[in-house]
Design a protein that fits this description.
This protein has 3 domains: 252 residues, Rossmann fold (3-Layer(aba) Sandwich), CATH 3.40.50; 81 residues, no CATH class; 205 residues, no CATH class. Helices cover 37% and strands 13% of the residues.
């Protein structure tokens, strides 16, 4: 491998890959990651591999410069420097720093300036709570070094202070910790020739796990019941340290002096026994626990991280239970849990910067988290969308990088760079830098964050215009006009679903208009609305479902544990006419009219009302360009949920357009029925203009 990689890739002076260690670590993990991805649940040993993703260099610089750099720029200004943010950013070499928008008189910055005027560079601390190989810490070192030198420190002295006082990192992966430790030590040696001889240890840690360790293992060192309680609480907190990682937090105060006394107390000198050896080993483990516990107990000026991503469905029982109990507002994904955790590690007026999936900005499962974050100030966001990471293709993983301040400025005007339409990592970086140079580009937005609360669900819809925000405030919610409902979840589609042409036609009832009618027909199969591909107005009549005897077999379908697995939801709406859309939409939104006679699925989202005309009017609104635009604001992810639909604002119904709407439905129905995949198929369109007496030439001899 040494011969395969160019020497320039290691040479920073010629633009080489300074983070080469991180890349090597990521690809070292690629094989165990591929194996782990095949599992339904991740084991403790899988977590480092499946959650490790190396952060692009420009995103690291964006996060550090717009958090640490911004903090120091405000310190300099608070001390009387009259230069603007942009001038100071250029002075400190912060190429990726985005100046804030001009604020209104409603934003108070006076009290912050008074506090910052007393801050020195040695007071500022930065933590990465899931540091991986230390990429963020290494760049933060460079920024700190530049500030120290501007403050008059010699490079050797600055190196020692940065490593000892300014940087902190944590991880659950021992190998990642070793690489981060090595990188910082090499960084220290590069800036101070005597660094390796000074016995300086970087404040980066592999989070320990206590396993079966209890206070009984330290019995001879305990002086009181209070010692026992304190020690047991600490040991219990780290019981599953390799799973919880830096999510470990303490609900009650800990006297670390007590823990340190137990961990460092000199043992009696004498004959070496097994108990003495065991106690010494336990003390060493407790020393590590105490060091990490103090890091987790402290608060920091700056937080910056690329958190691990893992949905609750992939978490094992131990991690899943802990997340649900301790982080109920963000439990849907590990990255959101870390958003909440990092936020708690930051001092008032401090900053935290992250890159995460963008789903927390829109999905209803993160609404409680958005409410909690409302008490902080969203300073800047680089909304990356897809392809922010070179090694991840496709449309599924959509990312956003952002900077929050631990401060409540309700009317703060944040700056947002909408980079979702740039289709590569390099183009996104180039567009971001262009927005710094030219703030008039059409993808840069300045938005009052108070607007987010005016839209139902509080999505971070920064690109919504003032007029559209007003429409959300004054319009009638869609949920007050029609009733959206989820439908049947069979729990085994392979067993209960068929395509309509796979079964005996005589066993299908295409015309049932109620459950009673369906039961009386004695038929087994009924049309099933399962969503389907993009198609407007009409279509996607593909599937049928076994609903014989009012779905008796589905209703009693159980798992190995005897529990019913299926969920026949909202059965009172089965077989009614509806408007429907697909849960998963990879492109533009599309809605269809569904004639009476179908059962709807959980993926074939459907809305109902007694008025056919009203259904069609809503259909027209939702299939319009305006409808697609507004739904993109409510939720631009690939999963369009019922909550997003019910929040859609209606100002005026297209009451005079029913004939146009009927024509749209009629034309698309005709198109659907032109082909054999429709159960109403009559004749292929190629044969329409052939006279009947000539059709014999198109038939087989047997016909």
């Amino acid at each position: 491998m040494i011969h395969d990689i160019s020497e320039d890739d290691f040479n920073v002076a010629v633009g080489g890959q300074v983070e080469i260690i991180g890349w090597l670590y990521q690809y070292y993990n690629s094989e165990p990651k591929d194996l782990a991805f095949k599992k339904k649940k991740y084991l403790e040993v899988d977590i480092p591999a499946v959650t490790q993703l190396f952060t692009p260099d420009w995103i690291v610089k964006y996060m550090v410069e717009n958090s640490l750099g911004r903090y120091w720029i405000h310190v300099v200004q608070a001390k009387g420097d009259s230069r603007s943010e942009q001038q100071l950013a250029e002075y400190f070499g912060c190429k990726y720093f985005m100046p804030e928008a001009q604020q209104t008189g409603n934003v108070n910055v006076t009290s912050e300036a008074q506090q910052l005027s007393e801050v020195t560079i040695e007071d500022i601390t930065l933590v990465d709570a899931a540091m991986g190989s230390g990429h963020i810490l290494i760049y933060a070192f460079d920024v700190f070094m530049q500030i120290y030198e501007q403050e008059g420190y010699a490079r050797r002295e600055a190196t020692n202070r940065i490593i000892q006082n300014n940087l902190y990192g944590l991880d659950i992966d021992t190998r990642a910790f070793q690489l981060a430790y090595f990188s910082l030590m090499m960084k220290g040696r590069a800036n101070s020739r005597r660094f390796l001889t000074q016995n300086i240890r970087p404040n980066v840690y592999d989070i320990p796990e206590t396993g079966s360790l209890t206070s009984d293992d330290f019995q001879s060192l305990l002086q009181s019941d209070s010692d026992i309680d304190q020690l047991n609480y600490v040991l219990d907190s780290f019981r599953y340290g390799n799973e919880y990682g830096s999510l470990i937090h303490f609900d009650k105060p800990i006297d670390w002096h007590v823990i340190d006394r137990i961990a460092n107390e000199k043992l009696p000198v004498g004959q070496l026994t097994l108990d003495a050896v065991s106690l010494a080993e336990n003390q060493h483990q407790l020393q590590e626990i105490s060091a990490v516990g103090k890091v987790l107990s402290n608060q920091y000026s700056i937080g910056a991280m690329n958190p691990p991503y893992m949905g609750t469905g992939k978490m094992d029982a131990i991690l899943g239970k802990y997340v649900k109990q301790q982080f109920s507002d963000s439990k849907s994904d590990l990255f959101a849990v870390f958003m909440e955790r990092l936020r708690s590690l930051i001092v008032p007026n401090g900053y935290y910067a992250m890159i995460t999936q963008h789903s927390w900005m829109f999905l209803s499962s993160f609404e409680k988290l958005r409410k909690k974050l409302r008490t902080n100030t969203l300073i800047n966001m680089a909304h990356l969308g897809t392809r922010a990471f070179e090694e991840i293709g496709g449309e599924v993983v959509q990312s956003t990088a952002f900077v929050y301040q631990q401060r409540n400025n309700v009317n703060y005007i944040g700056t947002f760079e909408r980079l979702v339409d740039f289709d590569s990592q390099q183009r996104k970086e180039k567009a971001y830098l262009a927005a710094i140079t030219d703030p008039n580009v059409d993808y840069l937005y300045r938005t009052n964050q108070a607007n987010f609360s005016k839209i139902p669900g509080m999505p971070i819809a920064y690109w919504a215009s003032e007029k559209l925000v007003h429409d959300f405030e004054t319009g009638t919610k869609m949920g007050e006009i029609v009733v959206p409902k989820q439908g049947l979840a069979t729990a085994n589609n392979s067993r209960f679903l068929r395509q309509w042409f796979e079964v005996n036609h005589k066993k299908i009832n295409f015309k049932a208009d109620s459950i009673n009618n369906a039961v009386q027909s004695k038929k087994k199969w009924f049309p099933y609305n399962k969503g389907g591909a993009f198609r407007k107005w009409y279509g996607n009549y593909d599937y049928i479902v076994n609903w014989e005897n009012d779905g008796d077999e589905i209703r009693h379908f159980t798992g190995n544990n005897g529990k019913v697995r299926s969920r026949p939801q909202n059965t009172g709406y089965y077989f009614q006419e509806a408007i429907t859309w697909s849960l998963i939409t990879s492109g533009r939104f599309s809605m269809r009219y569904r004639t009476p006679g179908s059962i709807h699925d959980v993926s074939g989202m459907s809305a109902f009302t007694r008025s056919t005309d009203r259904l069609k009017e809503i259909l027209a609104v939702m299939n319009s360009a305006v409808g697609n635009y507004i739904l993109n604001i409510l939720n631009p992810t690939i999963n369009l949920q019922i909550g997003n639909f019910t929040s859609f604002p209606i100002l005026k119904m297209p009451t005079n357009e029913l004939q146009v709407i009927d024509n749209c439905i009629k034309i698309t129905k005709k198109d659907w029925d032109y082909f054999e995949t429709s159960w109403d198929f009559q004749r292929h369109p190629f044969l329409i203009h052939i006279a009947d007496d000539n059709l014999s030439y198109c038939r087989s001899p047997a016909s």
